[in-house]
Design brief:
Elements (H helix, E strand, L loop, with lengths): L3 E9 L2 E9 L9 H15 L3 E7 L5 H17 L2 E8 L27 H7 L4 E5 L2 H11 L3 E7 L4 H8 L12 E6 L12 H12 L3 E5 L18 E6 H5 L12
Parallel strand pairs: 3-4, 3-6, 4-5, 6-7
Antiparallel strand pairs: 1-2, 7-9, 8-9
Length: about 260
């Protein structure tokens, strides 16, 4: 992989992220990660949260998780909001599927995207925690002990059932989340994708069965971005905690809109 010198800027309600850094993964340059993480930190600042957690479900080789921890460190220095990164993965590739169209069995098979856990752990910094095991179980155990608010969530799980398990992070009784959480769904823009399977079906089912938290597209995300043409921006969503938003009584002038 080519090492590149790159410079990038992302603006969000007065915060600016401006940096020059060596990155081993070229796709980080045009990634929407800066917008995701910076927006999460700004939302935390608005809510008075000093620390947030950024999650990636479906780590694979760890390329995106490594980018996440780099950007988390940069945003933390810029905003003062502490950011811990967490990666969830089976460690054994794609798990058992539902047995029907909902998991795109014509595209994936059990064991695809096997992780080299030992190598990845050596590459990760102390900022990042890798949680290995069945996502349904690791999410349940994690939520019981987390202290910081969920600030950003990325899903690259391929399967409908796995995506549903990951989204439980917003539903468990002891959950902690910002009122608005930036999200990224990786597998929603291929030719074979449709809203009746995979991550798109998980979003629909989540919204149908839950009243307190709803997931919707991140509207106007391309505005004021360094790479507004990036296809990744169309994969951005926001989880809105409607119950928490309903309890807010605004005691200040509204901030400028993004």
């Amino acid at each position: 992989m080519r090492v590149i010198q790159h410079f990038c800027a992302s603006r969000n309600n007065g915060h600016s992220l401006f940096y020059s850094n060596e990155v081993q993964l070229e796709y980080c340059f045009s990634s929407s990660l800066p917008a995701r993480v910076l927006t999460a930190a700004h939302q935390a600042d608005q809510e008075g949260a000093s620390e947030i957690a950024a999650f990636e479900f479906g780590v694979d080789r760890g390329d995106e998780l490594l980018c996440l921890e780099k950007y988390a460190a940069m945003v933390e220095r810029e905003t003062g909001v502490r950011i811990a990164a967490y990666g969830f993965d089976t460690g054994k590739g794609i798990p058992l599927m539902s047995g029907d169209y909902r998991d795109h069995p014509d595209q994936w098979r059990v064991g695809n995207y096997l992780m080299d856990e030992k190598l990845l752990r050596k590459r990760l910094s102390g900022r990042t925690t890798l949680l290995i095991g069945n996502v349904a179980q690791t999410v349940l155990e994690f939520v019981r002990n987390i202290r910081s608010h969920a600030g950003f969530v990325a899903l690259d799980l391929d399967l409908y059932l796995s995506a549903m398990d990951a989204l439980r992070i917003f539903l468990l009784a002891r959950r902690k989340m910002l009122r608005r959480v930036p999200m990224y769904f990786d597998n929603i823009d291929f030719f074979f994708n449709h809203k009746f399977a995979g991550e798109l079906l998980a979003i629909d089912q989540f919204n149908l069965t839950n009243k307190q938290v709803k997931i919707d597209r991140w509207r106007v995300i391309a505005k004021r971005r360094v790479f507004p043409e990036s296809p990744r921006l169309s994969k951005m969503f926001v989880a809105h905690d409607l119950a928490a938003i309903s309890k807010v009584a605004l005691g200040r002038l509204p901030t400028s809109l993004i």
